[in-house]
Amino acid sequence: MPITILQHSLSSHILSLLRDKTTPPERFRALTSAVTRLLIAEATRKLPSRIVTISTPLEETPGQQISVQIVAVPILRAGLGMLDAALEMLPDATVGYVGMERDEATAIASAYYCKLPPLENAHVLMLDPMLATGGSAGAAASELERTGAQQISLLCIVAAPEGVARLAESYPKLQIYTAALDRELNASSYILPGLGDFGDRLYGTL
Ligand code: PRP
Ligand code: URA
User: Fold this and answer.
1) Of 121, 102, 116, 123, the residue nearest 177 (C-alpha)
2) Is 106 a catalytic residue?
3) Which ligand is nearest to the CA of 103?
4) pTM over 0.85
């Protein structure tokens, strides 16, 4: 399964601010949007496009238009922090939602909500900032495939090797885009060095 790790001074700078435990929620939300824009740019780099004719104020010229329907699917709750930036970059995208929650004791993820538009022939951008054990992303990818998705990219901000390996085994076609591949999970399945609980830091529910 291909994984792309952003190689960009700006994403490294933003990530360092996100990791900093003194960054307050308002700033954390703005930084999440900023790094999401960079992830969207990378994940859409090779999307199919068609040639169209554009009239500039001076003459006609060939231009390009992305030719595949994009569906953004934030994984609730933390993935919502990436949605506004995704829609700013891709205003024609449609949106689906999957709600996943990890049990705090076992780290096992379960789904509590799912509302998806048609996914056949679409390119699905799954938005979830943390890929830890891979349980949430894996269960969400199953839902997407059941609904007809054939091309799925996962955009995350921090990934752990354990989650990447699990997805590579279960969903070898899934493309992962991340701002960082961290060292490991701790005994509670939190990412190290990581940035803590993303949803709590995003919404001030620590
Ligand atoms: C977090 C995060 C991912 C999941 C990653 O969600 O947003 O969805 O953990 O962990 P995993 O790879 O081990 O499944 P959480 O369950 O904390 O819910 P929240 O987004 O509502 O805070
Ligand atoms: N979910 C988070 O929000 N943070 C982690 O480190 C792991 C899962």
Assistant:
1) 123
2) yes
3) 1
4) yes
